[in-house]
Amino acid sequence: MDTNEKMALIAELLELEVSDFTPETKLEELEEWDSLAAISYVVMMDEHFGVTANPNDIRNFKTIQDILDSMK
Description:
With 72 residues, the protein is mainly α. It contains four helices and no strands. The chain has one domain: Non-ribosomal Peptide Synthetase Peptidyl Carrier Protein, Chain A (Orthogonal Bundle).
């Protein structure tokens, strides 16, 4: 999966357009990044990557790039 596909998944997760953020966007600046988005992230990781997300990792996310880096 390339970066554009990953960005599209994040946009869907946050209910935003891909043009609304960049990898450098800080999650604290996005009101869409909340506890519900974090839960949706866990589901997305399981469905698309077959990975169980670690809650501690999610708490340490600071930017969109951190989410992208977790999508392996």
